Amino acid sequence: MKIKLLFILSLFLFSSYTKEETVFWGPTGHRTTGKIAEYHLTNKAKRKIDKLLKGQSLAFVSTFGDEIKSDKKYNEFYSWHYVNMGLDEKYADAEKNPAGDMVTGIQKCVQVLKDDNSSEEDKVFYLKMLVHLVGDLHQPMHVGQREDKGGNTIQVQWFGKGANLHSVWDSKIIEEWNMSYIELAENAKDLSKAEIKAIENGTVVDWVDEVHEVTKEVYKSVKVGENLKYRYSYDHLETVRTQLQKGGIRLAKILNEIF
């Protein structure tokens, strides 16, 4: 009887773990991207954003898209956090989610923010969502395969504890580095104006296709059940840092164009 109860409990805990496991950049990642974006905003954009957010920073609101997941009235926005694509596909050729995806979500946010007839309430909501979604775009497993839910069903270990490939890239590599979002943002790479311009270049769809190339390498980087440790963190931390920085620079570009 005890064995049966323990078995049932273990299934419950595993189910809860996989369900609640972070499925987006963790808070530190999102806040890092928001903070980096603040460094690249024009003064005009800063003033208008500050007015809308009533002094709250982009870093502070960057986790909004995850926070509202606990409220069922926001379920319609769930599919905005990712794009499902085959590894050999470009976004233009991939089957689209009828409920919308990351690209259509970002486009909607921009549309609302540019519309002079949008209410202040809507502008605040979609600004917060935009900050979050551009961050999500640059997490490689958000442009993953449908069959494994962007790596969520690819089970691995992280220093001997159960994890999945998606969670490793969302938060575990960042957490292992043990730096605050401010430290991560302040220690982002020094880039020339030409390098920043190159990162800003392109459309949201171009960026999705670019990130998808990183996604392919992430899928190749592990075997199911593999115990990932210091070496994996060492090999991939720079990729994570690069993606966070690109997300911040591109978020600032979008916001500067809107405001």
Automatic annotation (TrEMBL):
The keyword Glycoprotein applies. The keyword Disulfide bond applies. Coiled coil: none annotated. Pfam families: S1-P1_nuclease. Keywords: Disulfide bond, Endonuclease, Glycoprotein, Hydrolase, Metal-binding, Nuclease, Signal. It comes from the Bacteria. GO terms for biological process: DNA catabolic process. InterPro entries: PLipase_C/P1_nuclease_dom_sf, S1/P1nuclease. Residues 1-20 form the signal peptide. One of its GO terms (molecular function) is endonuclease activity. PANTHER family: ENDONUCLEASE 4. This is S1/P1 Nuclease. It comes from Polaribacter atrinae.
